[in-house]
Automatic annotation (TrEMBL):
Known role: Participates in transcription elongation, termination and antitermination.
Organism of this sequence: Boudabousia liubingyangii
Keywords: Transcription, Transcription antitermination, Transcription regulation, Transcription termination
GO BP field: DNA-templated transcription elongation; DNA-templated transcription termination; regulation of DNA-templated transcription elongation; transcription antitermination
Positions of the NusG-like N-terminal domain: 83-200
A single cellular component GO annotation: cytosol
Keyword Transcription regulation: yes
Biased composition, class Acidic residues, residue ranges: 9-38
Protein's name according to its UniProt entry: Transcription termination/antitermination protein NusG
Domain KOW as annotated: residue spans: 224-251
Ranges for region Disordered: 1-59
Start-end of Low complexity biased regions: 39-53
UniProt record similarity statement: Belongs to the NusG family.
Keyword Transcription regulation: yes
Length: 279
């Protein structure tokens, strides 16, 4: 590997598609909620595949909470075996996916696959009410930050490759060597990396488990709640308030309910055990 692998002036960057992406991708729940999945590490173990394997190997209703714990334990174990360390890269807010696309293109064009192993933009899916319509919003969970799993080389060429990527402003944790051009960033601890990646894995696995259960209804968990009925919140910050069931998610034992906060209807997700039916 050459000492200075910075890109040529005419290097092509993967920007056209990334520039057209909105910072938040809105998808109507009934149409495209499952089309865009959050980014996650250990991508060779897809959450859809894991969910289908679980349902195929289980007789009777699935214990969703146990299934999620088991999936996260496997993810943790797989994460430990991956080469390299995780680093956090600063980017311009709203350019996170552009940075990911450009860095992956530079990794290939500059022959850096042995050093830059994975680029992740953690995503999350939330429900919002817009114009009286419930929509699922897939958005960047940590605006202005991109996770990179990489191995350092003796000449720090990999660091320059990352720093020279358009829309990258630097690494988190490299201020201790500001007087040097080749600042060495501080990697995340294993627990820090896991804490940043696990929420996306959990959310995606839960969604895929619900989708797989719909295809195999005999696996579904029986529930007593119905859309449109009023319930009373019995646990959490909304305890004592009346809410209306907007969505029932039996596989995850959760409800999406609508309640009134400060005079406005607000949707939130609650565990079934945190609400009670009204007489």
């Amino acid at each position: 590997m050459s000492e200075n692998p910075t890109s040529p002036e005419n290097e092509e960057l993967v920007v056209d598609q990334a520039e057209t992406e909105a910072e938040e991708t809105e998808t109507v729940e009934s149409e495209t909620a499952a089309e865009e999945a959050p980014e996650a590490a250990v991508t060779e173990n897809g959450e859809a595949e894991a969910a289908n394997e679980l349902l195929d190997s289980t007789e009777g209703p699935v214990d969703v909470e146990k299934a999620i714990r088991d999936r996260l334990n496997k993810f943790r174990n797989d994460l430990r075996l991956l080469p390299g360390n995780w680093y956090i890269v600063h980017s311009y807010s709203g350019h996170e996916r552009k940075v990911k696309a450009n860095l992956e293109q530079r990794r290939a064009s500059l022959d850096m696959e042995d050093y830059i192993h994975e680029v992740v933009v953690p995503m999350e899916e939330v429900i919002e009410m817009k114009n009286a319509t419930r929509k699922k919003i897939t958005r960047v969970r940590m605006p202005g930050y991109v996770m990179v799993r990489m191995s350092l080389d003796p000449d720090n060429a990999v660091l320059r490759t990352v720093k020279d990527t358009p829309a990258v402003t630097g690494f988190v944790g490299d201020s201790r060597l500001k007087d040097r051009e080749d600042q060495i960033p501080t990697p995340l601890s294993f627990q820090e990396a896991y804490a940043m990646l696990a929420p996306s894995v959990e959310q995606e696995f839960t969604r895929e488990l619900e989708a797989a259960a719909v295809a195999t209804p005999e696996k579904a968990v029986r529930v007593e709640f119905e859309i449109g009925e009023n319930v009373t919140v019995i646990n959490g910050p909304f305890a004592g308030q009346t809410a209306t069931v907007a969505e029932v998610m039996p596989e995850s034992k959760k409800l999406v309910v609508t309640l009134t906060l400060f005079g406005r209807d607000t949707s939130t997700e609650l565990a079934m055990e945190d609400v009670s039916k009204q007489d």
